[in-house]
Amino acid sequence: SCKYNQFYSAGPMPAAYSDQTTVIGQTGYAAFDIQRVPLALTDGWNVFHHLSNGIVANRCDITLRDCSFHYIEPDAMYNDLDGNGAAIHARATHGWHTLDQVGSFVNGVLPFRECHWGVYAKRMNVYSSLNTMDQVGTAYHIEKGGSRDVHIHTNNLDTKYDGIELLFNDEAAQLLIEGN
């Protein structure tokens, strides 16, 4: 279980060590960068702030409760990731995977504040509700949800750009967008 944590980048990243081949940006890449494993943050609050991305998940089932994301902004060093700067970045290049996220105030703090993207998802079932997103660039970017469920409802969205972007979701099994 992972609960009662703060994940953040405290300042500039240290310089690369000699012979290091990976790129290092000015802020941490993500609190979680996971591949093909389930992630459930449901037992207690977790706060993510001052990172380039909060959670980056590829081909994973993700369940999130009591999580708060603040000041998640893209670092140019990580621009090879579509949706860099996302609080929650979930993609399923293969398979059938689900993001199930319910917002709640964590110790009186909003679920999303000052993030470039709130939820950025590709080829995923997406269930997301009860969020307050304050000064988020784009709250939701949902792409290629054909044959999948997309339920985005009962959210309060205060965005700088777009509230909800739905791209190439033709033939989605269920597409429910209401009460936002």
Give a quick precis of the structure.
With 180 residues, this protein is mainly β. It has strands spanning 5-8, 30-35, 39-41, 46-51, 53-58, 62-65, 67-72, 86-91, 98-102, 112-113, 117-122, 125-129, 132-136, 138-143, 149-153, 156-159, 164-167, 174-178.
What does the main sheet amount to? Answer: 6 strands, parallel
* Range of helix content: under 10%
Q: Which strand order does the major sheet show?
A: 1-4-7-10-13-16
Count of discrete alpha- or pi-helical segments spanning 4 or more residues? 0
Encode the helix/strand succession as letters.
Answer: EEEEEEEEEEEEEEEEEE
Structure description:
There is one protein chain. With 180 residues, this protein is mainly beta. It is 0% helix and 49% strand. The protein has no helices and 18 strands. The protein has strands at residues 5-8, 30-35, 39-41, 46-51, 53-58, 62-65, 67-72, 86-91, 98-102, 112-113, 117-122, 125-129, 132-136, 138-143, 149-153, 156-159, 164-167, 174-178. The strands form three sheets. Strands 1-4-7-10-13-16 form a six-stranded parallel β-sheet, with no helix packed on it.
